[in-house]
TrEMBL record:
Domain annotation Solute-binding protein family: ranges: 111-519
Organism: Levilactobacillus fujinensis
Name by which UniProt lists this protein: Oligopeptide ABC transporter substrate-binding protein
Lineage, uppermost ranks: Bacteria, Bacillati, Bacillota, Bacilli, Lactobacillales
Signal peptide: 1-20
UniProtKB keywords: Signal, Transport
Domain of life: Bacteria
InterPro entries for the chain: Peptide/Ni-bd, SBP_5, SBP_5_dom
Length: 602
């Protein structure tokens, strides 16, 4: 599901990528309370004061649920994973993140590696700790730092993480184009098997101070373990699917394809020794997750639950609630072009069905998203006004209006653009008088998401647009994304999806010219210019950078090729036997800090 560099939560650790998130987690209520629009506030930690039961830690299994309506794909490699569900189920392995961060996601010392930025020399130096090892006992090396860039940028890679921002690394553009076999701008002062890599750049940007930025990749790849697997086949390899290795607190014992992962402690982990010896993570459908928690089958969910679940579970016995504003948003995307596999660039098609800006804006103004979220959101989700979530307080434009319900405006926009009812038809035809059927792609979810989708269809029908589900029904998640991620497709005209975003808000990896994640293929000179200006030399002045971010939000709302749908609050039910639970960004030892106060769920 989802973008480029990102952090899902302390649980999923700092992913260096943006991921697609299933959008079936439901909606919410429009509110102006607090500083981000949320109508409730939860603590990021459950402060359990009971004594730890060492016997339970040693002999019991932490039971974790991943609420999702599809099997997870099973791609353990952070560079190659494209959805948040894979990140979730493999998160006890640590995500192979290089850096520790503070509460604002700023990189600090103390992780697998430390980072030093030299603005004058235009270099970023990454130095591994001396005891950095993989879960099979192999040393983590400087080549492991560099190889992640090769996997991201190889012309045959299946990774979705590449964007033009990486071209700031010297030699990266040539490697990505296939005209160079190595990335000349990454060097090893003490050799490939040493612990230091130096990245030489054409520019230093303010975003590089934060994990998840779109210039410096934040995870490592086990080069010696995977070097004999062609990069094009890496995502399907045994090393990634069945027997992956990690740098985090737990090692993988078993994966049941699409269903579960099982973990035990990693004796080679450099950090805090995990207290709980065993972890199981199981996929549970969103229709069954409430009953599963009520029946005390799981200690907590690793995936955030939606508003309907919050209403049903907020007072459930034996559980506390924890949460924080989400590094995520849901959105509507329009198919306006294709991805040129020869040039590796997104291309707008001026003759595409959804190319008309009036049509796109009208479809958004026709929706009563505030009412939908008031009914289903329960304070967990509310209508989004831009494509920057409010967790980024500096850069989010709180004054933007987004697309509140305005049926008259929707009808006027359609009339002005020539989308009119002709010959007594109940449906509008296109400006050339041809029949217009718009195909809506939506992922299968729970009963709430089904009700939301029906409301959207109803509203579009009210303004005379014949909008139908692609294939006549909602789509299984993996099928949905495989359709959208095809270089060119005509099955989906508009789709509802979600991003689990990076901890640094630069959107190049989602909406850039070269971004594979730009699944609607919207491209313009102004969009490219604004995103570049977010990280030019002037942007070290934060007032200037904030101004550019707000200009970009205004521009994207005007173009409506990607339209904001909802913001949300990540919340998790936590069983009373769990101790040390804290999903704040600064808690980079999430899994290691957990312990149990009882051998049985409370």
């Amino acid at each position: 599901m989802n973008k480029k560099k990102l952090v899902l939560s302390a649980m999923a650790v700092l992913a260096t990528v943006s991921l697609a998130a299933c959008s079936s987690k439901s909606s919410s209520k429009s509110s102006s309370s607090s500083n981000n629009g949320a109508s409730l506030k939860l603590s990021s930690a459950y402060k359990n004061t009971k004594a730890t039961d060492k016997t339970a830690d040693n002999n019991s299994t932490l039971k974790v649920a991943e609420a999702n309506d599809s099997p997870f794909q099973g791609i353990s490699d952070t560079v190659l994973a494209t959805n948040a569900e894979d990140s979730d189920v493999f998160s006890p392995g640590g995500g192979d993140s290089l850096f520790n961060v503070d509460k604002n996601y700023k990189i600090i010392d103390g992780g697998l590696a430390n980072q030093r930025i030299n603005r004058k020399a235009k270099t970023v130096t990454i130095k591994l700790r001396s005891n950095a090892k993989w879960s099979n006992g192999m040393d983590v090396t400087a080549k492991d730092i560099e190889y992640a860039y090769e996997v991201v940028a190889n012309k045959n890679t299946t990774s979705q993480q590449y964007s033009s921002d990486f071209n700031a690394i010297k030699g990266m553009a040539a490697y990505h184009a296939g005209t160079a076999k190595t990335i000349s701008g990454i060097t090893y002062p003490d050799g490939q098997k040493g612990n230091t890599a130096v990245i030489h750049l054409t520019k230093i940007t303010p975003s590089m101070k934060f994990a998840g930025n779109s210039f410096i990749w934040s995870t490592v790849e086990p080069y010696e373990y995977i070097k004999n697997v062609p990069i094009a086949k890496l995502a399907s390899s045994t090393q990634v699917r069945k027997d992956p290795i990690f740098t985090g607190p737990y090692k993988l014992d078993k994966v049941v394809e699409g269903e579960s992962t099982t973990w035990s402690t990693n004796k080679y982990y450099y950090g805090k020794t995990p207290q709980i010896k065993h972890i199981n993570i199981n996929v549970v459908s969103t229709n069954n997750i409430v009953k599963a928690i009520q029946s005390k089958k799981y200690d907590f969910t690793i995936s955030s639950l939606g508003g309907t679940s919050y209403k049903q579970l907020k007072n459930v016995k034996g559980y506390a609630k924890a949460g924080q504003p989400a590094l995520a948003y849901s959105y509507f995307g329009f198919n306006v072009g294709h991805f040129d596999t020869k040039t590796n660039k997104n291309v707008m098609d001026k003759n595409s069905k959804m190319a008309n800006k009036n049509l796109r804006q009208a479809m958004m103004y026709a929706l009563n998203v505030d009412q939908v979220y008031k009914k289903f959101g329960n304070g967990i989700t509310w209508r989004a006004n831009t494509l920057v979530p409010p967790v980024f307080q500096k850069y989010w434009d709180s004054s933007a209006k987004g697309f509140p319900l305005n049926v008259k405006k929707a009808e006027k926009l359609l009339d002005e653009a020539g989308y009119k009812k002709r010959n007594g038809s109940k449906w509008r035809s296109d400006p050339n008088g041809k029949k217009l059927v718009i195909h809506f792609g939506a992922m299968t979810g729970n009963s709430t998401s089904a009700a939301e989708y029906q409301d959207y269809l109803q509203q579009w029908h009210k303004v005379g647009l014949d909008v139908q589900f692609t294939g006549g029904k909602t789509m299984e998640m993996n099928s949905f994304y495989s359709t959208l991620q095809a270089p060119k497709q005509s099955k989906i005209d508009i789709y509802a999806a979600a991003w689990s975003t990076s901890s640094e808000p630069t959107p190049t990896q989602l909406y850039g010219v070269t971004a594979p994640y730009n699944m609607g293929h919207f491209v313009s000179k102004k969009n490219t210019q604004l995103m570049a200006e977010m990280n030019n030399s002037k942007s070290f002045n934060d007032k200037y950078r904030t101004k550019i971010f707000k200009e970009w939000q205004e521009y994207m709302n005007d173009q409506a090729a990607v339209a904001p749908l909802s913001f949300s609050y990540n919340w998790y039910p936590v069983n009373h036997r769990v101790k040390g639970y804290d999903v704040s960004p600064a808690n980079t030892e999430f899994w290691s800090s957990l312990s149990l106060t009882s051998s049985k769920l409370q």
